[in-house]
């Protein structure tokens, strides 16, 4: 029962409308500093992605992992399946989700090697979460891309990312729906579904 209500709470938390916009330097810096560094590594070493993908992703992983609350993201994706999952199944799912989220975001950002990042100083504030928007700007292209991060403070007071929206595509909900389809296809065998768990390209709906 506790797990059930926790899932509902997390789902509503990520879907709640934001109430106001404020300048919060700490949260702005949390996203901006790491996003700028992330993009710098991609610009400087992006060519290594094809030849040495694991080494390249390890460098990005060292930036990415401390920022993301993978446990919360995983619970959102697992949805109702979480309440019946064993500790071992949850851990395996979290490990796979962590890697898949990184792969998805890295693949997306590799398209922005010629862009700069501008982080909006106006932070949208909800009761428990904050939304920070970054925009990709290029001198050679009129097209701009946007990514929004949903951030909250965990019990230790640390800022953590719990959702990402890339150009209007909500990764948390998209992955949740994709895993639900995989689980149904495997007749609700969670072990088989986790083994098969690999999100589709985020542009495929």
Q: What this model shows, in words?
A:
This protein has a single domain (2-196), classed as Roll (Nuclear Transport Factor 2, Chain: A), CATH 3.10.450. The protein is built from 8 helices and 7 strands, in the order αβαααααββββββαα. Mean pLDDT is 84; it is low at 1-9 and 201-205. Strands 1, 2, 3, 4, 5, 6 and 7 form a 7-stranded antiparallel sheet that branches. It has helices at residues 2-15, 25-45, 48-51, 53-64, 70-78, 87-109, 171-185, 190-196, and strands spanning 20-23, 116-119, 122-125, 130-137, 145-153, 159-166, 169-170. The protein starts with a helix and ends in a 9-residue tail after the last helix. With 205 residues, it is α+β, with helices and mostly antiparallel strands. 21% of the residues are buried. Helix content is 51%, strand content 19%.
């Amino acid at each position: 029962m506790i797990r059930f209500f926790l899932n509902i709470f997390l789902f509503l938390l990520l879907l709640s409308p934001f109430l106001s916009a404020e300048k919060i330097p700490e949260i702005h810096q949390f996203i901006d500093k790491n996003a700028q560094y992330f993009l710098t590594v991609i610009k400087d070493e992006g060519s290594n992605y094809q030849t040495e993908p694991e080494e390249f992703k390890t460098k990005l992983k060292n930036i990415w992992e401390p920022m993301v609350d993978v446990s919360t993201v995983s619970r959102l994706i697992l949805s109702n399946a979480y309440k019946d999952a064993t500790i071992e199944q949850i851990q395996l799912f979290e490990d796979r989700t962590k890697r898949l989220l990184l792969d998805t975001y890295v693949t997306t950002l590799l398209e922005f090697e010629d862009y700069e990042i501008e982080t909006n100083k106006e932070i949208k504030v909800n009761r428990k979460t904050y939304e920070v928007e970054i925009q990709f700007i290029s001198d050679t292209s009129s097209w701009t891309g946007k990514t929004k991060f949903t951030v909250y403070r965990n019990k230790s007071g640390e800022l953590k990312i719990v959702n990402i929206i890339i150009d209007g595509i909500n990764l948390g909900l998209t992955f949740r729906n994709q895993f639900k389809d995989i689980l149904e296809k495997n007749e609700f065998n969670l072990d088989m579904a986790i083994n098969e768990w690999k999100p589709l390209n985020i542009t495929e709906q």
